[in-house]
């Protein structure tokens, strides 16, 4: 069994949904897929995506991204209620949302958010970042740090005894995963990319491979004993992204 990685497929765009529908229905039937968030803010499109990937892969793992928790179009009372709905839909389709063993490998999802550990929120970013308008949080999660802590606290952190540990998150676990060539004008989004706490958690678990998304900057590199992989589909306008499935492990 092979393990593939994909994130940020944004099926709100017809081109992206068509790309997903064109994936082989026979080549991956004995394989596993990690889907690292940002499918769609539309529940209907999320369900269509889940139906497609479940037809193509033996096992599918999922964590929600920020777009998946937008509530402006779905009628959910708040983003935590929508999170509960997404978990229910995952169970309906048999999609894994908790840690699970495949052979000698344990695959562990890590929920998260951003907490400004990569930089301070600016007025410019606050005005431009759509989460601040499209997510809605209950009153006890009054700050972005509260939101991040809520999701991080959901993660199972008992150190794995498996021979190999693969973790995955939607959000970026460390800012030095962003390459040096990113222009300064685009670095304004760094504060909302993720949290250092995610990296602390994956190392506490003993992870040797971590798959993430969110940044739309695809990477495959080793840092301090962990291999970090981002394989985003991205927006159709992001023509520099290589739109493909990435095989992460050949022999689970």
UniProtKB/TrEMBL annotation:
Gene3D superfamilies according to UniProt: 3.60.21.10
Q: Where is the Calcineurin-like phosphoesterase domain?
A: 1-217
Q: Which GO terms describe its molecular function?
A: hydrolase activity
Domain of life the protein comes from? Bacteria
Under the heading InterPro entries, the entry gives: Calcineurin-like_PHP, Metallo-depent_PP-like, Pantetheine_PDE
Protein's recorded name: Ser/Thr protein phosphatase family protein
Q: What is the species of this protein?
A: Teredinibacter turnerae (strain ATCC 39867 / T7901)
Native organism taxonomy: Bacteria, Pseudomonadati, Pseudomonadota, Gammaproteobacteria, Cellvibrionales
